[in-house]
Structures are given as structure tokens and as C-alpha cells.
UniProtKB/TrEMBL annotation:
Keywords: Antiviral defense, Immunity, Innate immunity, RNA-binding. One of its GO terms (molecular function) is double-stranded RNA binding. Signal peptide: none annotated. It comes from Pelusios castaneus (West African mud turtle). This is 2'-5' oligoadenylate synthase. CDD domains: NT_2-5OAS_ClassI-CCAase.
Length: 404
């Protein structure tokens, strides 16, 4: 359990993040060297002995906590998404990725003896795995390791030119047309997922570190909890809607994220930073997504993915409730730190929680839809009489208010 965090006074959470959670420069340098080694291996050696036509690596994108700048001391994760020229579309990726992963694994086992890192490769239990997972441990630094997820992917963003830094809507139109399972091709958008977090202020990244550390401490083996990415998105949302101050109080930010988790049954969050409602097909799909049962947290890079869908939010909410009563959420006088004023519930069941960047939101989802009232159009003369009558009533109320 997170006893060290729970026993830390709220006013000292910044120090806790700096002393306990933030990795030192030596580890970050070694992590960078390890990533460079793997990337060089992928570009030059991985497919070198394959018969023609040789597979070419278009580019490699670094994601995960190391790519986003939210890594934790003692162990971090890095997603290396390898975009290959042999994938001509989403379906190509799904059909051929298992063979590519097998080839990468074979060459990784062959080349690891040349490196200054110990490599431990995980065996997948899936017949058509999406990822090759392995751990690299330093041979010189004790208790320092990096968990790698290597994912071959279709280079969807390169195919369609981007305008104003935003992907062309055709990227998502193509994705919707071959849609099978939510988030199946989210690896194609790792770059957008990374940029969504990496561009945030330093202290918000510290809040993400704190939330991920809490999650890591309360998670138990066998529990299907929401992924860490869901908590990253909640942290960003909490700061966007509740503060936007680069020097916010860490305890207030942490308390707000916990409150959002506690109110998970009301969550419906999305951003329009990469996709929006301008294209008719995309808009129709988004409307369907946002009418699904809550909690809804749409991946800001991939609208197919509802992050944490089907997970045990109830277990995480129970831990969040417990955390709210610990010292890390109490002030000097033992009073609970108040969360930011972020919309998490309303009297109407039709209220949406949306990001401030969102535009043209769809009709809200409701578990128990209220019947729509028919529109009534009054004749012009009747409407004028009503307006005059309302004006006289307001005058009378004003005079009554002014009487002693």
C-alpha cells in the first residue's frame, strides 16, 4: 500500500515528488542510451538478413513515460512504435504484425550480447500479439530498469498531410471505415498521445507522476483496473478545467483527480485537439461514442478508444475514497484539502463533462432519457402581449422591493 504517500503531509507533496518520484539525471542518461541502442538496432540490424524486398523502418516514435517526461524513479516504461513501409493500411498491420514481432524478437535475442544491458524478453500468451515486451536492466546501476513495449505500426499520419498541426480528417475516416475494436490501432497515433502530455507544464507532469505512483501502490495483481493512461488524461483534464496555474498547489490537484475517480459514473470527457465534428462521418461516430454508458474518456489521439472501458473503476474509486482521508489530502488543521471546482455532477442526468477546447458537442447521453417537449410557436400578437405583461410584473416587483 501507499503508506509513504499517505503519511506525507499535503504541504510536502512537492518535496515528496522531487525526492521520491523524480528520476535522477544518471538514470535518464542511461535510459536515453538504451533507447538509442534499440532504435539503432531496429534501423540497421533488425531486418538485415531478410530476403528481398527488405522491410524498411520509416521512423520510430518514443512514447510511454520516458517519451512524455513523466517517468518514475526506479523503473520506467517506454513505448517504441516502429512504423514500417510493409504496412499499407490498418488491415495490413493487423494481419502481418505477428510475423514482424517474431522477427524482431529473433534478432533481439541474437544481438543483445553486444550491449551493456541485460535484456529479459516476455513471452506473449496471445496468438496475434500487438506488442513485443521486454525489460532492459543496467549492469552497473542497481534497481534501475526500463520496461519496453515495441509495437509495429502502420504510418497513418504520414500518409495524410496535416494542416495546422492537426491530422487531416481523412486519417480518422479511414480508421472508422475499417473499425473493428476500440483502440485496436491506437499505436498509429502514439505521437499524438505523447505530444498531448509532453507539451504540458512541468508541474502538471509532476502531478501525473504522483497520480501514477499512487496507482502503482494500490494496484493488486489480477485486478482489471483502468490503465495509467486514463489517469494521465484525468490529471490533464483536472488542471485544464480547475486551475491552469503553472504554480498550482499539488495537494489540490491530486485531490481533484481523486474526486474525478470517485465520481467515475458521471464522467464523459473528450478533446477536439486532433479530431472534431467537422467531417460528417467522424461526427456521427463521435456522437455514437459519447452516448455509450459512462465513464467515457475518449483518447484525444484516437476517437475509437474509450480509455478504461470495461475496467474496474469501482475498485479504483474505493481506493481514491480511502486516500482522501489520509494526511496527503489534509491541511495543517486536519481539514480535508478541497478539490478544484471541476464539473463532475449536476442535477440533470444530461450534463456532459467536456474539455474547454471542445466545439459543437453532441446531444448528451442519458441513462434515463427525458421525454422531449414539443416546440410551441405563439402568434406574433400573443407574444407581444406576453412581453408587455411580463414587463408590468417586473415593474410592480421593483416597486414592492423599494418600499420600506
Amino acid at each position: 500500500m501507499a503508506q509513504d504517500l499517505y503519511q506525507t503531509p499535503a504541504r510536502k507533496l512537492d518535496k515528496f515528488v522531487f525526492d521520491v518520484l523524480q528520476p535522477d539525471s544518471t538514470f535518464l542518461r542511461q535510459a536515453g542510451q538504451a533507447i538509442d541502442t534499440i532504435c539503432e538496432f531496429l534501423k540497421t540490424n533488425c531486418f538485415a538478413d531478410r530476403p528481398p524486398p527488405r522491410i524498411k523502418v520509416d521512423r520510430i516514435v518514443k512514447g510511454g513515460s520516458l517519451g512524455k517526461g513523466t517517468s518514475l524513479k526506479g523503473g520506467s516504461d517506454a513505448d517504441l512504435v516502429v512504423f514500417l513501409d510493409c504496412f499499407k493500411g490498418y488491415n495490413d498491420q493487423e494481419t502481418n504484425r505477428a510475423g514482424i514481432i517474431q522477427e524482431i524478437r529473433r534478432m533481439l535475442e541474437k544481438c543483445q550480447q553486444q550491449w551493456h544491458f541485460e535484456v529479459i524478453i516476455e513471452t506473449s500468451r496471445w496468438p496475434n500479439p500487438r506488442v513485443l515486451s521486454f525489460q532492459m536492466r543496467s549492469k552497473t546501476t542497481v534497481n534501475e530498469s526500463i520496461d519496453f513495449d515495441m509495437l509495429p505500426a502502420y504510418n497513418a499520419l504520414r500518409k495524410f498531410c496535416c494542416s495546422r498541426g492537426k491530422p487531416h480528417s481523412q486519417v480518422y475516416v479511414e480508421l472508422i471505415n475499417c473499425y473493428s475494436r476500440g483502440g485496436e490501432f491506437s499505436t498509429c497515433f502514439t505521437e499524438l498521445q505523447r505530444d498531448f502530455v509532453v507539451e504540458r507544464c512541468t508541474k502538471l507532469k509532476s502531478l501525473i507522476r504522483l497520480v501514477k505512483y499512487w496507482y502503482k501502490q494500490v494496484r493488486q495483481r489480477g485486478q482489471s483496473l483502468p490503465p495509467k493512461y486514463a489517469l494521465e488524461l484525468l490529471s490533464v483534464y483536472a488542471w485544464e478545467r480547475g486551475s491552469r496555474d503553472r504554480a498550482f498547489k499539488m495537494a489540490e490537484g491530486f485531490r481533484t483527480v481523486l474526486e474525478l475517480i470517485r465520481q467515475y459514473k458521471k464522467l464523459c470527457i473528450y478533446w477536439t485537439i486532433n479530431y472534431d465534428f467537422e467531417d460528417e462521418l467522424v461526427a456521427g461516430f463521435l456522437n455514437k461514442q459519447l452516448r455509450k454508458p459512462r465513464p467515457i474518456i475518449l483518447d484525444p489521439a484516437d476517437p475509437m478508444g474509450i480509455v478504461g472501458e470495461g475496467s474496474r473503476w469501482d475498485l479504483l474509486a474505493r481506493e481514491a475514497e480511502h486516500c482522501c482521508h489520509q494526511q496527503c489530502c489534509m491541511d495543517l488543521y486536519g481539514v480535508s484539502v478541497q478539490p478544484w471546482d471541476v464539473l463532475v455532477s449536476a442535477a440533470s442526468p444530461q450534463c456532459l463533462i467536456v474539455s474547454p477546447e471542445s466545439s459543437r458537442p453532441p446531444a448528451p447521453y442519458s441513462e434515463t432519457p427525458w421525454p422531449a417537449l414539443p416546440a410551441v410557436t405563439m402568434p406574433e400578437g400573443t407574444r407581444k402581449n406576453v412581453d408587455r405583461r411580463e414587463g408590468r410584473i417586473l415593474q410592480v416587483l421593483f416597486l414592492l422591493f423599494m418600499l420600506p
